[in-house]
Amino acid sequence: MRAGLIWECEQPVKVCVRIRNGDMKTCPVCSVVFERKSDRSFSQFNTQLFCSRRCKGIKQKSPKFVHNRKHTASARAKMSAALIGKPSSMKGRRHSIETREKLRQLKLGAKSSLWIDGRSSNKEYQQFRSRMKMHRRRHAEGSHAFGQWYALKLAYRFTCPCCLRMEPEIKLTIDHILPIISGGNNNIENVQPLCGKCNSSKHTKTIAYPRPL
After folding, report:
1. Of the residues 53, 68, 83, which one is the last residue of a structural domain?
2. Domain coverage including residue 29
3. What percent of the chain has pLDDT over 90?
4. Any idea what DSSP says for residue 197?
5. How far apart are CA 197 and CA 52, in angstroms?
6. Cα separation of 177 and 174, whole Å?
7. Among the three residues 68, 85, 111, which one is the final residue of a domain in this structure?
8. What pLDDT does 52 receive?
9. 2, 25, 140, 206: which has the fewest C-beta neighbours closer than 10 Å?
10. Portion of the chain with pLDDT greater than 70, in percent
11. Residue 123 domain flag
12. Residues 6 or more apart from 176 whose CB is under 8 A from it?
């Protein structure tokens, strides 16, 4: 058991309460001798250096406070030598407008890491990727590619089998014949193209519409 610490137990609750004997400390700001408070936690009890918050604030604003000290010339030389040969960090800095334009040009078109035969710049392909990402977050089984989805729309002649309207009058969306919430998968065999209105009205029903002739 630590010196200066007394343990008392309250029998009804059986909870041990730690009581500390305060010791005397001289405030480095006003030179007042004070007793450390015994109702603080152990870490606060050992680090209580000032008699009041006012003295603590005065000390923190002082140029001699540890946070406001400057490195010596030898320390700065050592830190500079340690950074030689290491890549510079851009943390807290910003590129100039000319540099940002150069970096943008380096990632345009086929130079981009997301370039896939130009389809990455296609808005419909981006929406398809977002839709697949949403299904993965819902832990849906199976998947299908963008080419399979386009071939399915071509087989349906870009027509909604429910209302028989065609693109571009409507926008065909992915509908699962057996909904994922009911145990369906995301394979192309369980997918049919429906317009947004028909897809919403179908809701969680299991309906397989025939292909339009």
Report:
1. 68
2. 5-68
3. 35
4. H
5. 68
6. 10
7. 68
8. 82
9. 2
10. 77
11. yes
12. 184, 186, 190, 191
Q: Which residues face 146 on adjacent strands?
A: none
Examine the domain organization and report whether 60 and 125 are in the same domain: no
**What tokens appear for 104 in the block?**
């943008």
Among 6, 43, 4, CA closest to 24:
4
Helix, strand, or coil (residue 175): strand
Core vs surface per residue 81-104: b (16+ CB within 10 A) or e: eeeeeeeeeeeeeeeeeeeeeeee
Residue whose token pair is 């339009």:
212
What is the C-alpha to C-alpha distance for residues 55 and 30, in angstroms, rounded to an integer?
7
Angle between helices 123-137 and 146-155 (to 10 degrees): 110
Is 160 part of a structural domain of the chain? yes
Q: How do beta strands 24-26 and 191-195 pair?
A: unpaired
Assigned domain for 113 exists: no
Same domain? 129 vs 197:
yes
H or E, element range at 75 = helix 73-82
Tens digit of each residue's pLDDT (9 = 90 or more) over 13-44: 433 434 444 577 888 888 888 877 655 544 45
Per-residue pLDDT reduced to its tens digit, 148-160:
999 999 999 999 9
Asked whether residue 80 is domain-assigned, the answer is no
The total number of structural domains that make up the chain: 2
